[in-house]
Amino acid sequence: MIHGKNYIGHSTSAQGSKTYQTFNPLLNRENETLFHEASEEEINNAVSLSKAAFNTYKELSGSRKASFLEAIADEIMELGDELIQTYCSESGLPEGRAMGERGRTIGQLRSFAHLIKEESWVDASIDTAQPDRAPIPKADIRKMLVPLGPVVVFGASNFPLAYSTAGGDTASALAAGCPVIVKSHPMHAGTGELVASAIISAAKKTGMPDGVFSNLNSSGIEVGQSLVKHPDVKGVGFTGSIRGGRALYDLAASREEPIPVFAEMGSINPVIILPSAMNKDGAEWAATYAGSITLGSGQFCTNPGLLLGLDGDEMEHFVAQLSEEIIKKEPSCMLHPNIIGAYEKNKAMATAQAGTDVAASYSEEVPPNFARQTVLTVNGKTFLENNSLHHEVFGPFSLVVKAKDMTELVEIISGLEGQLTGTIIAEEEELSNNPTLVGALQNRVGRLIYNGVPTGVEVCPSMHHGGPYPSSTDSRFTAVGIHAIKRWVRPVSYQNWPNNLLPNALKDENPLKISRLVNQEQTKDEL
Amino acid sequence: MIHGKNYIGHSTSAQGSKTYQTFNPLLNRENETLFHEASEEEINNAVSLSKAAFNTYKELSGSRKASFLEAIADEIMELGDELIQTYCSESGLPEGRAMGERGRTIGQLRSFAHLIKEESWVDASIDTAQPDRAPIPKADIRKMLVPLGPVVVFGASNFPLAYSTAGGDTASALAAGCPVIVKSHPMHAGTGELVASAIISAAKKTGMPDGVFSNLNSSGIEVGQSLVKHPDVKGVGFTGSIRGGRALYDLAASREEPIPVFAEMGSINPVIILPSAMNKDGAEWAATYAGSITLGSGQFCTNPGLLLGLDGDEMEHFVAQLSEEIIKKEPSCMLHPNIIGAYEKNKAMATAQAGTDVAASYSEEVPPNFARQTVLTVNGKTFLENNSLHHEVFGPFSLVVKAKDMTELVEIISGLEGQLTGTIIAEEEELSNNPTLVGALQNRVGRLIYNGVPTGVEVCPSMHHGGPYPSSTDSRFTAVGIHAIKRWVRPVSYQNWPNNLLPNALKDENPLKISRLVNQEQTKDEL
Prior knowledge:
The structure is a homodimer. By secondary structure, chain A is α/β, with parallel strands linked by helices. Chain A has 2 domains: 6-16 and 43-121 and 147-265 and 477-487, 3-Layer(aba) Sandwich (Aldehyde Dehydrogenase, Chain A, domain 1), CATH 3.40.605; 270-450, Aldehyde Dehydrogenase, Chain A, domain 2. Helices cover 38% and strands 19% of the residues of chain A. Chain A is built from 15 helices and 25 strands. In chain A, the strands form 7 sheets. In chain A, strands 17-19-20-15-14-21-22 form a 7-stranded mixed beta sheet, sandwiched between helices. Chain A has a 5-stranded mixed beta sheet with strand order 23-8-7-24-25, with no helix packed on it. The longest helix of chain A is centred in the N-terminal third of the chain and has 24 residues, at 95-118. The radius of gyration of chain A is 25 Å and the shape is globular. The mean pLDDT of chain A is 97. Strand 23 (489-495) of chain A pairs parallel with strand 22 of chain B, so a sheet runs across the interface.
């Protein structure tokens, strides 16, 4: 039963007088539960508990922390149908998507548990002493990764499970040894509360310290701001809009002690379709992209919002095919009236720009909160001159840019803001003949895709999800995959430390049997 | 012959009308050469060249870039005695120190050359396709580190060679594949110019693109500000004061596209001396610390500015011994009149704080620009209540804090700003009996030292030089050692990319024979 209260560590609390409700976009009405926004006192209590929990939690072994993550996965499954129904009622997304996303969430938790159980991820490094070295002796120096401290996580509107309460940011921070305070996303506060209850239950069952996790409700920006400004918070994870992410980044950067903010934000994911591919498989790519643009009502951070090609007959033909295919798609429900409101507004703004033409736009009647897919076209020169066309229209929308030649195409790519992904559709020979194009695209993106679609972000070690700004605030880190743990840790060196008092990862006898860099050789041997 | 001009890529340039001179603190007079401050046009030209050079330089093989770094090392040695004499005339530091620092600089360049020649450092990772996976096939995804783009480096006043023109920041950025623009430190502009000439000469000899390196003169803050604000600059390295580093950090964070700034700034490097050590080896530790506090006139970022212990007879005795030892030290010349001016001012401010007592202060006459070492004492309560005592006094100075008990000592440690290092001097049993103290210290520092001194930063993989703010702006990265390269790179994934068009590090046949994570197993095998 959803109660609408905050979790301040292991305890529920509802001191605040401000309440709000979530919204069912399919039924076009509010859901019943009243959620209590966290008060300033509750925020401070959560951070205090988190700070105290850090000193205990950071010292736990990898296998203890792994058992916590695995218990979270189990407890989420235990929530059963209530979680799936709540998810659907707060997002308008279908049951299949809810179950798929739950699977992804569970998979992420288990993969971080697997990573930390083994413990080689702490990048242990040992340089032994050389007491006889001239002119000065060399001390024994050893290094490993340690957690930063309490981390605040802001969930995403478009991934109520996989990038929210127990999503990638929370899983990676807990795996790193950082307590987490979630600022619950107001659009799916019920889903968030259920997942929070699973985390708390797992924390109790596995003996984790009170404060290792808290979940704070909030419908506005104040709770998030207070958390990011709090001196005992040491890192921030965010998935959402550029405006929201940048505001948090600015707030964190203006603190007396600035802290790292990893914000994964907007991206229009440019796709370059070259003539060879249009000639050979134009119809197939048109159908594939009609699917990718409208997938999940276009509500993915990797949605292809920009298609680029060379003007000419192939391009005209491709646009005609794409237009035909995209109109065939059944419109679907967006997450929230605010989201479809923004979609309609941004689409209208793009359409109103001089030089844009509507190639295709679904025009039939649709139920409330359903998005009508649209494709615009524009020539390269107009696109280069009008920056407003470079911004994301979040939803089932794509802008096709027709460049007059390869030089203009490279100029367009080089002038784009940073992107999560960049795709090239071409025959291999045409790809290999255009290294400048590939080099320019690589400078602007975090992931290059050949002959595929950007939607679908595989969770694996080789996945990088995070590109140059504004697709993320720090392109050096990923939000997806096991390396996401690196956002929440820092190295610490131990010089001349007595062997028996060193952390296990650094002891001579290598009790954890992990892989370590010992005098510049990677090995699992003891010293 | 030092000409006082800027290096804009391979060419010298002196368009600006503003000039300045360096200062010889030993002779207490200005050196002769007039240095031409870079103009706005020269700054823009340097960045444009750097941007163009990036696209060529980033594609070079590891061994090509390594030959460049090795040539820089050779060319610096070729500068011979002129470099050493210029160094001494601009710093007041002795010849032995100059040669030692040159050796460190050369060593750093060669160790980065060694690292990138082998190329495993790019952290290549490969997850092969699973076309038959249900419900959706898995694409082939591969990942490696790529350089960020042009990097601006600000040299340190206190390391004219090892942390300046061709110092750790420049060496690591060039190794990563980033062109470098150095904002030359005005106190040692001649040393900087000579080293810049060596880099340019090495670039020409090894066929590096024009713009891979530039050196801009500046005596004020405007040139640095213009560089950090320039949209084509993608990263910043800085070593210096908190005020200077924070100003650059704020500037970079306020850009339309924020960029990473790694600033290594102030630190008072707390040293905790526990009773067991004072009893056993008090006299020896007093002599050792008298040496560490006055080493290089206290002008090291790891200088022990804060000694902490428990009040009592052992402490009184230790302070008396330390006072006796430190007075015996011969005062030495500081780097510049501005630096000794700040030292005298900050020392006077600390001395004027209520509750502080002078334990020892060198009172003999000294030549101009020589610093007189000083040790103050204060009790724990006063220190806790007066934050101004927590700030660095850059020079041969240390404050001894006498805590009333272990609880107060832990409170003091927990309330300190972030530090590069933290040291504990104790018998092993006393160390092992105080895990809370160790845990609290670990939370505040980047390196823990047992029974040693913080001065002396070994260059090795296990060295971490960079702690919580304000000792550095991002505790997740180091300024010393091969891992410093990680500041200037970001991962890029390649999805479904044709094997023959992948970078060599990611090709099936592993032509570079590097260590890679292939389907979650670390291996040097081909696929």
